[in-house]
Amino acid sequence: MTDATANGKPQMLTTADGKPLKEALNRAQARARRKAFLLVLPLLAFILITFVTPIAQMLHQSVYNEGFVMHEDIGSGERTPIMTNIKTWFDENPAGTEPNEEAFAALHKDFLLLRELRAPGQAGTRVNYERGGSRSMFTKTARRAERMEAPYMEAFLDVDEEWTDPELWRVMRDASSAYTFNFYLAALDRTKNVDGEIVNVDENRQIYVKLFARTLFLSVLITFLTFLLGYPIAHLLATLPLRYSNLLMIFVLLPFWTSLLVRTTSWMVLLQSQGVVNDALVGMGLLGDDNRLQMMYNQIGTVVAMTHILLPFMVLPLYSVMRPINPSYVRAARSLGATSWTAFRRIYFPQTVPGIGAGALLVFILAVGYYITPALVGGADGQLISNLIAFHMQNSLNWSLAAALAALLLAGILILYWLYDRLIGIDNLKLG
Amino acid sequence: MADVNRDDAFVVFDRVQKSYDGETLVVKDLNLSMPRGEFLTMLGPSGSGKTTCLMMLAGFETATHGEILLGGKPINNIPPHKRGIGMVFQNYALFPHMTVAENLSFPLEVRGIDKSTREGKIKRALDMVQMGQFGNRRPAQLSGGQQQRIALARALVFEPELVLMDEPLGALDKQLREHMQFEITRLAHELGITTVYVTHDQTEALTMSDRVAVFDDGRIQQLAAPDTLYEEPQNSFVAQFIGENNTLEGVITAIKGDLCEVKLDSGEIIDAKPVNVSEVGQRTRVSIRPERVEMNRSRLQAGAHTLKAEVLEFIYMGDIFRTRLRVAGNEDFVVKTRNAPDQVRTEPGQQIEIGWLPQDCRALDA
Amino acid sequence: MKLKTALMATALAGVGFAAQAQEVTVMSWGGAYTKSQVEAYHKPFTAETGIKVNSVDADNPATPIKAQVEAGNVSIDVADVEFSDAVRLCDEGLLETIDVSMLPAAPDGTPATEDFIEGALQDCAVANIVWSTVMAYNSENVDGTPTSIADFFDTEKFPGKRGLRKSAKATLEMALMADGVPAGEVYDVLETDEGIDRAFAKLDTIKDDIVWWEAGAQPPQLLADGEVVMSTAYNGRIFNAAVGEDQPLEIVWDGQILDFDLFVVPKGAPNKDAAMKFIAFSTDTQRLADQASWISYGPARKSSGDLVGLYSDGKTEMAPHMPTAAKNLENALVNNFEFWVDMDAELNERFNAWLAQ
Known about the structure:
Organism (chain B): Lutimaribacter saemankumensis
GO cellular component, one term (chain B): ATP-binding cassette (ABC) transporter complex
Helix content of chain B: 10-25%
Largest sheet of chain B: 6 strands, mixed
Keywords (chain B): ATP-binding, Cell membrane, Membrane, Nucleotide-binding, Translocase, Transport
Strand content of chain B: 25-35%
Distance between the termini of chain B: 26 Å
Protein name (chain C): Putative spermidine/putrescine transport system substrate-binding protein
Oligomer: heterotrimer
Largest sheet of chain A: 2 strands, antiparallel
CATH architecture of the largest domain in chain B: 3-Layer(aba) Sandwich
Order of helices and strands of chain A: HEEHHHHHHHEEHHHHHHHHHH
Number of helices of chain B: 8
Protein name (chain B): Spermidine/putrescine import ATP-binding protein PotA
Helix content of chain A: 55-70%
Strand content of chain A: under 5%
C-alpha cells in the first residue's frame, strides 16, 4: 500500500504472472459473489414483489385516478378512453372559461359513450370525490343522453340545473387528467376553489389534519408510556440472574404469542363499563354503581390497550442494550463520588439511549400505523389515521385518497427516521 | 495487626466477616491495619476473599460482621460516593459515552468543582500518566494500556487519600504489565497515596508492594513485606503460593534449639528450621527455594548437608540453568543455578549430589 | 392495473375459495340473519338442486365486492346488500345484470315483476326482504318506557349510553325525526345544508353518550351486556334476541327506517349460473315466506305475506313483529336510496369529521 503510493501516484499492482491485481482479485471473488447473490435472490424477489412494488403502486395511485378518462371492461379487459371530447374542449379553453354550447355538445357525445359502456357511475364517482352530489347527475344525464337534442346546454340544464355550476366544471377539468395532486390536497383538508386556488375545506369537514395530529400525539404518548413501564422491567430483566430473568422474559413475551384480537378483546372485557375493572372498583366501594368509569370506546381504551400490546417492542431492545452494560460502570461512578441518582442519570442512562431510541422508533412506527385495536376499543375519539385509511379502502372505496393518506403517513415516518438518524444516529440503533 | 496499632492506622479491618448466602463465610475474621501512604497488596487465588474485602472497603458490599475504619472513622454506613476512595477496575470501567477528558471531569463535576479548576486538574492528571494529548478521544479509540492509564488518572484526579485497584493489569500483555507495575508504584509513592491493590499475580505483588497480604480460604495467611514473605513463609500455603518452592515431606524426629531433625518419607534425615511445627512426631512439609540449592560441591558452605539426586531434565535458560531432579522420591525437585563459569551443566540420567544450608530449609505444616 | 388491483385486493379480501363446479358462495351479514337464510334458502336449495351453498359473512357484504371485481379475483357468487349499495355498485358496472324474467311467478300466476313490491327489482338486484333500522332498549336497564325516537335523544329523561351504527345513513334521518321532522319530510330537509347541520346538531346533544357499533350482531349484545341502555339496531336481530333468546329487549317502532336487502351477483362471479339459480329459487313466494319464520324481516313479494305464519318456536305469530305491519308503520321512513347513492361519500366524510372532533 505505502509502496504503491510512495511516489505520490498509485501504481498498478500486478500478480506474479503480470495480471492486474485488482482484476485477479475480482475474478477470484466473482464466483463467491455470484453464489451469495443467488442465495439472497429469493428474498430480494420477495421484497420487490411484496413490499417495494405495492408501495410504488400505492404512491402511483395517490396521484393517478383514471375514473374520468378511461373505462376498462371488467369482463374483457378492453380499455376505452372516455370523456375525450370534453377533454379536447378543456384543452382548447383556459381554466375558468364558462361552459358554452360547444362544451355541452362535447359533453353530450361523451355521455353517449358512457351510456353505451355503462360507465356514467364510474366517471360520476370520480367527480363526486371532489364535489358531492355529482354522481347522480351523471347517471341521470346518461340515462337521458340518447333522447337529448341540441341545444345541448338547455337539454343538460333540463336534466339538472346544477350543470352550469362552475365548481363542477373545475372538478371535471381536473379529473380529465388522470394525474392529479387533488387527493393530497384532500388528505390535508384542502381543496381547490372555483378559481383553482387552494383553500381549506369547510370547517366541519376538516378531519385528516386533526387525525394526523391525534395519531402523532397518541403515538408519542404510547411510546412514552411503554418507555416508562418498560425501562424498569428491562432493567430488572438485565440484572436478575439468568434463570429468573428467563422466566420473567416469558411473561414479557407472552403477549407476543397471543393473537392481537384476543389481547384486544381481553382488554375490552377488562375495561368496559360492566367490565372487570369497573366491577372491582364498584365492589370495593371506590366507585358508585351509577358513575362507572368510561375506559373503553375512547382514547383511554386505545392508549391502554396499545401500550400493553406494544410494550414488548420497547422492553426487548432495552433489555438487549442493558444486559451487556457492566455493573462496574455504575460502581466506578459511585466510587468517583456520584450519588446513585447521578450515576444513573449520567452513566447508566446514556448508555441505554441506543436501546431507548430503537424501542421508541419501533413502538412509534407501529403505533402510528395501528388499526385493529383503535378500531375495536377506540370508539369515536380513539380512532387513528389508519382507521380512516381503512375506511376509504373498504367503505368509501376512494382508493386514491386512501393512498394519499398512506403516502403522507409513510413520508411522516421517513422524516422521523431521518431526524432520528441526524440526532442520534442510525448506527446507534440497537434492536437486540 | 502486628506492626501497626489501631490508633495511627489509616485503614482498619476489625474482625470483619462476610457471607453472601448465610451459610458459608467468604471472609472469615479479617483483621488488618494499614498506615497512611502504604502500598498494600491483597494476593490470593480466586475465591480467597480478597476482592470481597476490596468491595467492602469501597462500599459496594457490606460487612456481615465487624467494622471497617477509614481515617479512624467507621465507614460501614457511609455510601460509596461519600467515602472519597479512588478505584481502578479490572475492566477499567471507563465511561464509553464520554471522552477521556469527560471521564476525568466526572468525579470533579459531581464534587461541584468549577470549570477552570477542573481543567487544570484534568491536564495535570493526564500529564501525570503521559496521556496529555488524548483528552478528546473516546475510550474505545485507545489501546488497553492507554485505557489503563486513563483509569488510573481518573481514580487519582480528585486526589483521594486511598486508591483501590482490582486486578488493574490483568488484561494487559506481559511487557506492558511490567511497565505499568513500575508506573503505578512510582505514582503511588510520588503522590503519597495509600493504595490497596488486589491481584492473583505474585510477581506483581512482590515487585510493587510495601506489604503483601496473602489470602486463602477467607483468611490472611501471612501479612509481610515481600522479602520476608518470600524468604520466611509462615506456612506451607504461603511457601507454595509465593515463588517456586521444593517440598519434601516427612516427620519431625527431634527439636534442638533453632533447628529440628526431619526424617523424610524416603528415609533420609535432614535438618531444617522449624517454623510452625512444635512437637516431635508431627508430620511436616519441608520447603527449600530452588536457588538456595547448590549442585557444585566446591561452592557448598560449611554446615551444609547433602543428598543424592538424579537429573531428570536440564533446561538452559540463558541467565540461569533449571534442573529437574529426583530427590528423596520427589520427582519435581527443581534447582536454579546461575550461569557462571564454574557452574556444572548436567545431563539427564546423571547421578549427582546436591546440598543446602539447614537455615534455608523450613519445616512447615503438612 | 391488474397487478395493482390484485395487490391491493389481497389486503382487502381475505376470502378466496377455489371455484368448483356445483357450488355457490353467498355472502351475508352474519348472526341470526345468515341463519335465517341458511334455513330458508340454502338448505332447501341444496336439497333440490344438489348445489352446495357456502355461507360467508361480512359486516357489510357490499364492501369486498369492488376490491374483488377490480382485482379480477371474485370469490363471491351472491351477495346480500343494501339498496343504495346495490344501485351504486350496479352503476359502476361491478355487478351482473339480472334477467327478471327468470324469476318464478307467484302461485296465483301473477308475474314476478308485479308480485314484488315496488322498487324491489333492479337492473342488477333482486330484493328478498324489507328490514328496518329501529331503536331498541333493554327494559331491565332503562327507567320508564321509551316510546318515541325523541326519547332516544333524551338523555335526561332516560340516562345511559346509546348505541348507534357508525355510519351516516339512518343515523342522520333518525336525528332529524327526533328533532321533530315528520318522516315524510326527512329527505327534503336533509338535502339542504341547514338540514344536515340540524341533524349533526341533534347528534351533538348525545355525542358523549354514544357507543358506536358496526356489525349487526353487536347491538343486541351491547344491550344485553348493559353497555348501552338503548341502541339502534336491525329489527330482526332484536326480535331474535328477545323472542329466541328471551332477552329483555324491546323495539320502539316510532321513527323506524325501512330498507331493502337485495341479492346481487358480482361481475365475474365464478358460478354465475348457479348464482342466478339460487336467486330465482330463494326469492320465490314460499322461500321468502319461510325466511320470515326465522327472523322478523318482511318478504319482498306481496304473495308471500299471506304465507307468513309462526316463528320457528312454533307459537309466536310473526305478523305483528314485521316492520311492514300496519301498526309499526305509523311514523316510518322509507330509506331514499337515490339520496344515499349520491350523498353517501359526502355525508360520511362529514360524519367522520364530526366523529373525530
